[in-house]
Amino acid sequence: MRCFWDERQRAHAPQTEFFNGALHPAADVPERVDSVLSAIGKVEIPPRHSEAELMALLRPVHDANYLDLLRTAHDEWRSAGREGDVLPYAFPVHRRPRSLARIDARLGQHAYDTCAPIMVGTWGALLAGLDTLLAALDATLAGEHAFALTRPPGHHAGPDYMGGYSYLNWAAIAAILSGKRAAILDLDYHHGNGTEDIVRGRDGIAFASIHADPATDYPFYWGHAEDSGGNVLNLPLPRGTGFEAYDSALSRAAEWLGDGSPEIVIVSFGADTFVDDPISHFSLQTADYARLAERVASLGVPTLIILEGGYAVEALGGNVASFLSAF
Fold this sequence. Notes:
This protein is α/β, with parallel strands linked by helices. The protein contains ten helices and nine strands. The protein has one domain (about 1-50, about 120-325): Arginase, Chain A (3-Layer(aba) Sandwich).
């Protein structure tokens, strides 16, 4: 398996996030990368593209006004006299007017929570993440399995919104740019709401997500079983789920995706399903990831694996390496 990583992604290093009524230290820290790199060994540095080239590739997936906000938000925040990381605080519920100038209003227009802070290095890190993704996608389209060590995560980012540590949706970008019949399999603890919003109804792309029941867990408003239909399959599981129940759900998802005869499989892999993850509540063990990955690999299709969550930093590298071992 070929693995890709770009050091420029470290520039995204948020300090805080806001949830449950208080500011908390950010969970998506660069130390997550060190854990993975130490476990997987050799990585390739992706070729670099110009910002203009990358923006052109993003436009079929993400709204132009949203991309402009990501690019300029930190500078606008500073120009408004603000310090610290950029966070929204006001959100439109019933309508989203387009002609807004103030940075606070624009942030709320393109965010659904306060867990996606923007800092001075965020935009550059996102472009580096896209370079990383493109290199791994090219390898997959050439018939190889590949791993894109992307950060920040992506599967909560929608066509025109950020949230859940996510800004650009790596899995959806890869599926759309591939031009192939694509199967997206989301194996993060949390539902890939942004991915579902982007690909629902798109010909040639199927999306299956195995995740914590949104009746009890973030992101709450997406991912219910009754939301399945068409090219979307949601398989919510209760807190405490272990290997047997998870594997059963994965068997169902793999069979459903396989029925579409995909030419490429894209896995949004989150190791926050690990028993000791600090913000999640499944009970998978490190050795379980290899067994789960074997089921995915049995589809016999070139597979692109993208890193999503996983916040038990010391164990993250071992969990990722366990999953990759099956490929």
